[in-house]
Design a protein that fits this description.
The protein is α+β, with helices and mostly antiparallel strands. It is built from 2 helices and 6 strands; from the N terminus they run αβββββαβ.
């Protein structure tokens, strides 16, 4: 009798854990598919090569730039980050406030632009920071 009760309790614990995992997995898949659905309608971004660089100002302080190619006639350039990435660092504000600069480089009806990325974001995020920064245009 004790063995049956023990097996029933153990089965109940296992099934509870299994279904909890299954529900969480489905939720994550739903969230991922929502992100994919949202990105289907956004223009595909085209990264510069190299994807980013570092420039040193007259005071010897490094600044980071992430490069993108956009259509020459793009009017509104909107930087954004992957979902869940905190971009509001120190006094720079969120990514929507970061500077986007058009360069004079034009190739095949596309213009090279870059986003100035705050040093503090690069330090806090670390390696691969350029992969979570994106640019949408209209």
């Amino acid at each position: 009798m004790k063995n049956k009760l023990f097996i029933m309790i153990l089965s109940l614990i296992f099934l509870t854990a299994f279904f909890r995992f299954k529900v969480i997995s489905n939720l994550v898949l739903a969230l991922e598919s929502d992100n994919i659905a949202l990105n289907v309608f956004a223009p595909t971004e085209k990264r510069g090569n190299p994807a980013y660089d570092t420039v040193i100002d007259k005071y010897g302080i490094p600044h980071f730039r992430v490069f993108f190619w956009v259509p020459k006639n793009a009017k509104r350039l909107i930087p954004y980050a992957d979902p869940g990435i905190k971009t509001k660092v120190l006094t720079h504000g969120p990514i929507e406030n970061w500077s986007v600069v058009k360069t004079n480089t034009i190739k095949n009806n596309e213009q090279l632009v870059f986003i100035y990325v705050p040093k503090s974001f690069v330090l806090f995020y670390g390696k691969g920071f350029q992969n979570v920064i994106h640019l949408r245009y209209q």
